[in-house]
From TrEMBL:
It is a multi-pass membrane protein. Keywords: Cell membrane, Membrane, Symport, Transmembrane, Transmembrane helix, Transport. SUPFAM superfamilies: MFS general substrate transporter. InterPro entries: H+-coupled_symporters, MFS_dom, MFS_sugar_transport-like, MFS_trans_sf, Sugar_transporter_CS. Residues 1-24 are annotated as: Disordered. Residues 29-438 form the Major facilitator superfamily (MFS) profile domain. This is Putative proline/betaine transporter. It comes from Arthrobacter mobilis. Belongs to the major facilitator superfamily. Metabolite:H+ Symporter (MHS) family (TC 2.A.1.6) family. The keyword Glycoprotein does not apply.
Amino acid sequence: MSEESKASLSGQPRPTEDADNGSRTRQRVVAASFIGNFVEWFDYAVYGYLAATISVVFFPEADPQTALLSTFALFAISFLVRPLGGFIWGHIGDRVGRRNALSLSILIMSAATFCIALIPGYATIGLWAPVLLLLVRVVQGFSASGEYAGASAFLVEYAPAHRRGLYAAVVPASTAAGLLLGSLFAAVLTGVLSAEQMTDWGWRLPFLLAAPMGLIGRYIRTKLEDTPAFRELEKEDHAAKAPVKSMFRNHWRQLLQAVGAVLLNAVGFYVILSYMPTYLSEELGMGATESYIATTIALLTYIGFIFATGMLSDRFGRKRVLICASVLFILLTVPAFALLGTGNFLVIVLVQILLGAMLTLNDGTLPSFLAEMFPTKVRYSGFAVSFNLSNALFGGTAPFVATLLIAATGNDLAPAWYLAAAAVISLVAVALSRETSREPLRHE
């Protein structure tokens, strides 16, 4: 008698039914991870895209460059809380579960972003305006510190072994999609509204979307079970009592390698995808609407490149793809930024597409690479701490450092040299790590 006939007579699910159920579950996991991360990073990115307008609202008495530096300083300060958030979210994710951590983080992010839309400007409440903005940005930073790591661990632990790279690529793809919607909003608002309307009320509109979008993401996540890997740890009572302590004691080498590997992603992501519209409009004199349109076009191609990179990392291994990304940034970043200075719209779009494609080699591979470096019992902690530490030190400060370097040197190519230096450090860190794509996920 066949296995399917036995299953039918015994009332047990057939193998094909199990496979179908598993496939449907993974589809829901992918959808929940995509939508939740999309909402988080749309909320977080809008601030960067509207930085020029926000600087006028909250720092009206400063000259334009000082106001912009102040706005990006608030952007950077909010990242300082991210390592602390990495410890806390890592502990929650490794002790209580990935799903619970992700469901809570999206509520906190959405509420904080919604509050930004309600803060009066400097003209109304004076210094309290930037103070309140800073407080809300810190809450945003705390929430975001658990999102990327948790969604990546969630997907990797649900994915088929030979497709972990592709599944994990959903996280940076959803991040880029959030940035894309933010860029589209900024392009439409600056194109339709006058400068006065943007300053008075227009900049608040995308922040108001946070509440309904966050509730949708929260609802979807609460309908999922936690990952099979985490449930197995719980069943065997092997979950680490103090995951962060265990990570530092037993996996400190991987932690250092991970921090270095993230460096290129941290600087590249915020320079190429978040800071670029401001760089084009404020430093190179391009129209604000045109700069948003160029970034939007580049982001559309970026999402497609991300999934291709995930498949490449499954086929050729994580290290090869990450090393290739670092080498390309070392060789091509400065020439690419030099071409941006031509002012030709088509050239600018093509350069942004090139830079985005180079970044996807890192961004699309990093989630699976980091998740595979650490065992299940400290996976969330290892990923969250390494990712957020590198982003706090180098990612959130990237727009500020880029603006400061240009002001100090008078050289518009300064951000490119900064990005190339980050690529050198990441190259060394990845070269010292081991290949994990062909190995099963470790639990201990």
